[in-house]
Amino acid sequence: MLDFNRYFLPDRRIFLDNVQYETLETPNPTENRKLNCKDTILAQRSDKWIKINFNRTLSFAPEGVFRLSVTYGVLLFFNPQTKDEINWKETDIAGAFRENCKPLLANMMSRTSLMVAQITSASGQNPLITPAAPVADAGSAQ
Length: 142
Description:
This protein has about 140 residues and is α+β, with helices and mostly antiparallel strands. Helix content is about 25%, strand content about 40%.
């Protein structure tokens, strides 16, 4: 179990990293569509910080209506006194974040859910409310 409070300073910066929204031509608007919602957590590492991205992507099957991707990030700055206790190159940082930083992850998910609702309601439609919790087994990569 990776103790993020031990290896990172309390200064954590959450930010909107990326939004991609594309309306799609829908040849048969009455056709039934399934909404697909996928969550992904990615980690990037530098000598001074780790950046964790939480991404939620929404699309429809069959393709139509829109495609939407919202990514929030958080920068975690290494504690210089404890940083070298861990081999960060061999650590599944995204997986450890998912398991050990649930309040911070919930904060990012809540922001993502709110952004999805705001974007999908911008054209006067009812907002699409996605859960402020994992919608599926989130993937991880470094």
